[in-house]
What we know:
Layout: H1 2-17, H2 24-43, H3 48-68, H4 73-97, H5 108-123
Amino acid sequence: METIQQLIKVEKEAREYGFDWPNTEMIFEQIISECEEIKNSIKLEEGVKRIQEEIGDLMHAVYSLCIFMNCDPIETLKITTDKFETRFSILKKLAQEEGYNTLKGQNIDVLMKFWNEAKHKLNNNEI
């Protein structure tokens, strides 16, 4: 979390200095560009350090969007972590009810079936 605090501080300092995004559309373009750079680095097998650098750039762009939208990045990350944890817990319960002790080795269709069922149950307060 110390590094996230450092990023927030530097982003706010840059913003106060006038080095800021003019609108969300440009941030989205940056996020898309960073995703393409990650895909390209993986495709070219540029190695873990290079891929990590590109993923870090993507994370920075997403944090920039949080800050631009006046969302606390740490609180935002906590909200999504809690949401994932809850959905995953429901997913595990659903899988166990159908006789799965683990989903290792299952194809993506099985994984997504349980994920979407968990999401549906959570969204409709069926838990």
